[in-house]
Amino acid sequence: MKITRLIFDLDSTLYAPTAGITAGFSDRTLSFVSDFFNISREEARAKRLRNLPNFSTTLEWLQSEGLTDVEGYLAYMHPESEANELEADANLRPLLASIGIPKSILTNSQLEHAERVLKKLNVADEFESICDIRDCNFRGKPYETAYRAALKKCGGTTDGTLFFDDQFKYVDGYAALGGVAVLVGTHNGTPLGTGASPELSAVSAPPLHPGRVLRMADIYALPALLKQIADL
């Protein structure tokens, strides 16, 4: 397989899911859901776990429940101070710089969040483009339009572009388009639920040109994986 582009998810893909920023995001999510429904944090956690598999994002789920202030939600989830929750990784930049393939980001968060994280990790200039939730008209992965928007922005095609993500339903979405996706790490969430909308449910249907889902332990397994794919 000839690889011409790499598209990466951002959070828990470029850095470990055990990072402090992940805990901060989870805490803010529970607080928001708790306040939105006027329930306890324990009830909020259980309610989100039941419903999230049937939606692309927590945002989409809350919109189905009546949330209208999308920008307010995004600002609350990703405050300017969030970068303080993430430790710099001195080894990430040399790793990415050693791989001479154009790289881009596809995130279900907003641009400001992506820019903060990439700046903190000191790898912002390693990525040619960022496709954020606004670019996707707030319909993020695993909607087909999200991947298409990212591919259009970076000039890639499913035939030559690898997609990396830490969540089952997001790699499944790219593979459903016939592309090769890579599931990163072991904190992978759940596949898309049976109660998803018909449009999202298409992610689980057999694609016209079946793709593949590979696995790698973390971002530092990238060079070995690329060599493996090149030998296919």
TrEMBL record:
Superkingdom of origin organism: Bacteria
A Pfam family matched in the record: Hydrolase
Protein name: Putative pyrimidine 5'-nucleotidase
Species assigned in the record: Treponema socranskii subsp. socranskii VPI DR56BR1116 = ATCC 35536
